[in-house]
Amino acid sequence: MGIQVWFIVLGVGVMTLIVWDGKRRKLKQRSLIVADITRKVPALDTVPNPVSPYEAMSPPETDATTVASPAIERIPGGSRIGSATHILGKVIADEPVVIKGRLEGTLIAPNHPVSVTASGHVASYIEGSCVDIDGYMVGTLKANTKATLLTRARLQGVVEAPRLECMAGAWLQVDVAQAASRQSAAMVS
Prior knowledge:
The chain is an alpha/beta fold. The protein is 27% helix and 36% strand. Strands 1, 2, 3, 4, 5, 6, 7, 8, 9 and 10 form a 10-stranded parallel beta sheet that branches.
């Protein structure tokens, strides 16, 4: 083979490497953008003071090996608020709800379980039959049967539940009310 053929083969090989490297960089850039979007949580525009209530709470310490809590993963079907979703307003559900994103407002699902994952942020009011918190919440939590604060929970406000379970590692600054015991005491009187 002559030198011209070698240059052609070498040129084709170099061009192939350049195309593959460009595709690899493009995929890497897309994954970094998606990861950055999912990490960002929009600021609270509706809170009158400029400091977000979430900033007052220390963030949960997680590492790359952390997995979702089994209590949250066992909820079948239902509505899921994704990690890149921000809802401002009122949500009424007649099915289980899992919050991975941000909810500023009211969530009412009185006959179904409600879960806030480690990436979830809730401000205002949640009502559900069984409420599991593993993320941030500022406001009122009303559980008709049981409220569970998992290890990465950061809660500030009021908890109203007949039963409250708090795992080691959860951080809370709340007033606790046992609604069921007050109602049954009123019925006896």
